């Protein structure tokens, strides 16, 4: 019976319906006017959409079972090893850094817009470094390993990536004066939308969203980000507001003539949990071990993926630049 209870608790935890079920049981709907009440019914949306997307995949005979299997194993593994690390890191950083903020925001609409733009900057930094620093790419590559896009990909993360991401984003936001309550509200909105942009073609075929895509980052933009095509490499790092991609020149729309190919450029078995989860660490360790001299060993850790001490570099920036020059010619 204890095993069944544990299984039941894990299912309820995955679906995120515990708080909503409590509200429905008590019949006290006045709580829906509070932040906790609202989030209770928003949190389950993504897990339920994951199930719907999987069912539609079965209906369309495009279930992506290999992707779902590995992402499910990653979710289960992360539940055990990294459950509370990220939130603890956020709380610690707020306590340490808030006294150093030059000013504090307040709960007004204009400060909220400011806060979201600042949050997106922090997100851009963490995400950009996750592609440009080999060590951080080892944390992030698990998320890019799936060779198809669907909502389960949102659960595919190395367990230490969340603490790294929240360290960068929280540091930027708190030093920029964001009040903690506003920060948590933005984190919730951004996390929910950040899950939604992984929706696959089984549910939304063309996810450009028309004119709206000029102002916000759409699932189409994020599909581009997950592509390994030279045209699409290392683009669209933002999450909701794509302002910083425009500022730093990393914005890229999905081209109808350029079909997206998902995954990473390293040869790997995307159906193998160990290769997806630890493969980049193994590749980095091998490069560091074989590199001559301490300087080269350190360089492999902090230079972009594809960098080589031999000078035969194949970084994403170089591959994309070469491709763009060929297209121009």
TrEMBL record:
Membrane topology, from the record: Multi-pass membrane protein
TM region(s), chain numbering: 38-60, 72-97, 109-129
Record-linked Pfam families: FA_hydroxylase
Origin: domain of life: Bacteria
Location within or outside the cell: Endomembrane system
Keyword set, alphabetical order: Lipid metabolism, Membrane, Oxidoreductase, Transmembrane, Transmembrane helix
InterPro entries for this protein: Fatty_acid_hydroxylase (IPR006694), Sterol_desaturase/TMEM195 (IPR051689)
Listed GO CC annotations: endomembrane system; membrane
Protein's UniProt keywords contain Flavoprotein: no
Domain named Fatty acid hydroxylase: residues: 113-250
Key word Amino-acid biosynthesis present: no
GO biological process terms, semicolon-separated: lipid biosynthetic process; membrane lipid metabolic process
GO molecular function, one term: glyceryl-ether monooxygenase activity
Record protein name field: Sterol desaturase/sphingolipid hydroxylase, fatty acid hydroxylase superfamily
Organism: Pricia antarctica
